Each structure stands twice: as structure tokens, then as C-alpha cells.
Amino acid sequence: MNHNENLINREHKIIEVRNLKKYYPSGSKTLKALDGVSFDICEGEIIGIVGESGCGKSTLGRSILRLFPVTEGEIIFDGTDISKMNRRQLKPYRKNMQMIFQNPYSSFNPKQRIGSALTEVGKVYGMTDQEIQKKLSQLLEYIRLPEDMLQRSPGELSGGQLQRLAIARALILNPAFIVADEPVSALDVSVQAQILNLITDLRKKLRMTMLFISHEMTVVEHICDQVAVMYLGKIVEMAPTKELFAHIRHPYTQALMSAIPKADPEEKKERIILEGDIPNAIDLPAGCSFASRCRYCTQECREKTPELTMTGSGHQVACHHPIE
Ligand SMILES: Nc1ncnc2c1ncn2[C@@H]1O[C@H](COP(=O)(O)OP(=O)(O)OP(=O)(O)O)[C@@H](O)[C@H]1O
Ligand SMILES: [Mg+2]
Hints:
Elements: E1 9-26, E2 29-43, E3 46-50, H1 57-64, E4 72-77, E5 80-81, H2 87-94, E6 97-100, H3 114-124, H4 129-142, H5 159-171, E7 177-181, H6 189-206, E8 210-214, H7 217-223, E9 226-231, E10 234-240, H8 241-246, H9 251-258, H10 299-303, E11 309-310, E12 316-317
Parallel strand pairs: 3-8, 3-9, 6-7, 7-8
Antiparallel strand pairs: 1-2, 1-4, 4-5, 9-10, 10-12, 11-12
Helix pairs in contact: 3-4, 5-6
Bound molecules: adenosine-5'-triphosphate and magnesium ion.
């Protein structure tokens, strides 16, 4: 069982994504950046999204936050469908949905002091000075940075310090839902672990509900309750984290995993090199989109698109020949 299960309220779904699609026109053709994605996130739960560059992770995160119009499907935020709302209708929801970005340097204005950048968020949403101060002191304690950091400008801080502050800024309004888009990818390896520990710590204190995006399996393993693996706009495998890592079923996830170097050099592991070309998301062939690179590919895979199917222990896989 997931050791964070007591932090999750399974009765309360914060996000329900149903058959979500985001298409971009590309000349006379269509780029299917998201092509029918469905999952739920319960209150207090952290869902991980992994996959190679360009598979649609950021598009998924930004679509759920409705940073742009979506092509098709539903996004249900705490019981309300926000997928077709316009700017004005979305306004009351903005406060409740925050984002943490990859690059902490570009998420702060270099000319603005940190303190002013953080208080500004509260002011925009009508918090009083007193409320903002109280929240800020609490958050600074949580992210373990002294008050005098607020006097500094972004250029006077390290990447790790800035990312802590970006996390604090996302939490000022007590959002019901947070998208963290590769929040450690731009940081030094030594700092990455600190930020991941901080998020783990904060989720316990604040019961955060989060979509956590990463291109690395090892990063999601330590922080997420469930992990969804994406390939060319679709989820190809999704399961509770322990279950997924104990029993990988999709050949693509297996290839992603085998790309991770083992800490112990004595332990021999076969590296699976992803062969074949990544099909273009514009001209997807019929059948399974991973077929051209898959070492288990058969005729059926080239002809018929595999559907994401529940296979037991909450494990879903979209493959005609899942690994046993
Ligand atoms: N505004 C846009 N207009 C056209 N195409 C876009 C746009 N945004 C994203 N795309 C395309 O959609 C696909 C998915 O992009 P996305 O940024 O979601 O990938 P990603 O998984 O986040 O990649 P990375 O790991 O590099 O951040 C890519 O093919 C990308 O080129
Ligand atoms: Mg991205």
C-alpha cells in the first residue's frame, strides 16, 4: 500500500479529466498534442506524468489549468466542468489552481524584490496585508528560508532558493490544485533531492493536490502516488507508483526505465535502446503509435490502436502484448 494513502481523500475528486484533446493546426494537417487523455486526481494526491520531450506533458498541465482553449473533452474541477468556460467565467477558479515552472530564474521578474513578488499574488486576490504576512511567515518557515530573503532580488539567490520561493508563491493563496511542470529539471542534481524532499514535506503539512510532470522515472517514483506514462499525446500506462515500478507492463515504459543508469555498477542490466523513428505527432500511423519503435511489435499493432485497459491492481495499460 502507498504509505501516503492516509493523506489522500478518495471520496473527494479535485480533478477529473475526460477524453481531453488539444489539437494544433499545422499547415493543412493537425498536430495532436493531446489525444484523448482521462484520469482523476483525488484530494491530497500527487499524480506523476512522465514521457519523452514533446509527448504532451506540458500541454496536459496547461490544458487542465485552462491556460488556453481545449479542443475536446472535459476538465472537471471540484465538480464543475471548466473545459468550455471563457476568461470571465474562469476567473474565480484561477486562484485555486497554481503552477510551478521548470526555470525558477525566468519565473521571477529580475527587477522586482522577492518580497514584493510574493505579496503581489495575495494582493491581486484581495488578501489583507496581515493575512499575507501571516501566510508568508508560515511558508518561509516551511521552505526553511530566513525572512531577509524577501529583501533580495532574484539575481542574488541560487536556483534552489529561488525554486523554494516559487513553490511558496504558488502556495500563498492555498490553492486546491497545483501543476508542477518539471520543477527540478533545471536544477543541480544535489539541489534536486532537496526540492523533492521539500515537496514531500509540504504535502504532509498542507495536503497538496498536484500534477507533477517530469521526463525522469526516478523523479516521479519518489514523490507520486500514481504515475501515468505518456507517448505522443496519449497515456500508454498508468498505475499506483509501487505497482508500476514493481511490474512494468508497457514496452515503452520498460524502455524509459532501462535508460536509467543503475547506482550499483555490479548490477547488470540490459539497456533497451529505443529504435526506429519517433512518428510525427502530425502524421500518426494507424495502429499503436509506439509500433515503429517497439521490439514486440506484431501485425495487429500496426493495424489496431490499443485502448487503455484496466488489468488489475489499478494497473492500466494500452498494449496488445503487455509484458507479463
Ligand atoms: N502552441 C503550440 N503550437 C503548436 N504546437 C505546439 C504548441 N505547444 C506545444 N506544441 C506541440 O505539442 C507537442 C507537445 O508539446 P509539449 O510542450 O506538451 O511537450 P512536453 O512533453 O511538455 O515536452 P518537454 O519535455 O520538451 O517539455 C509537441 O509536438 C509540441 O511541438
Ligand atoms: Mg514540457
